[in-house]
Structures are given as C-alpha cells and as structure tokens.
Design a protein that fits this description.
With 116 residues, this protein is mainly α. It has helices at 5-69, 75-95, 97-113.
Length: 116
C-alpha cells in the first residue's frame, strides 16, 4: 500500500509542507511577541511622560496655592495646608488602589497582550 512511489512522494510533500507551516507559525509568534512588547513599551513610556509632566505641574500649582494662602495666614501654615491636602489625597488613592490603579492596569495589559 505504501510502497507506491506516488504515495511516498505525497507523504514527503505533506511532511515538507507541515515543516514549512511550523516555520511560518514560529515566525508569526515571534512577530506577535515583538509587536506586543513594542506596544507595552510605548504605553509605559507615555504613562511615564504623563506622570512626570503631571508631577511638575502639580509642584508649581502647589507653590502657587501655598503662596496665595500665605496672604491670609503665615507661609508655614499655608504650606502645611497644601501638604495636608496631598496627604488626604494620597490616603484616598491608597485606600481605593484596586479601583484607581489595579483594575485599569489589568484591563490595559490584558487588552494589549490578549489582542487577537
């Protein structure tokens, strides 16, 4: 049954095509991983730039608010009030970190990594 040359050639051809298919699949996986890594690096770079810019902006706004408050109270108390505001904001964010940080980050990463 398998001694026929045509059958042997067909099986050989099938094996060669299967090897080629596996090579193409391997190449596709490499390209897909590379694309996802580039997307992750891009997203994290944009997030880092946004955070740095926001911190700088908040720094100057904090000084402006503190100096504006210093017209009605001492400068030390004005800076203490601004610091207390940031402390309360920090505590609110920490107490709700799942809602504000973890869930959005998980959604972002799953959208990038599981994108079909």
């Amino acid at each position: 049954m398998f001694s026929n040359d045509k059958n042997v050639e067909t099986i050989t051809s099938l094996i060669e095509k299967f090897k080629h298919y596996l090579e193409l699949q391997s190449e596709f996986v490499k390209l897909d991983v590379a694309e996802k890594i580039v997307r992750l690096i891009t997203v994290f770079s944009l997030i880092a730039i946004t955070i740095i810019a926001s911190v700088v902006i908040l720094f100057f706004i904090s000084f402006a608010v503190a100096y504006a408050l210093s017209t009605i109270m001492s400068t030390a108390w004005a800076f203490c009030i601004v610091a207390a505001f940031y402390l309360v904001l920090f505590l609110i964010i920490i107490s709700n970190r799942k809602k504000f940080i973890e869930r959005p980050l998980v959604k972002l990463l799953s959208a990038i990594l599981l994108d079909k």
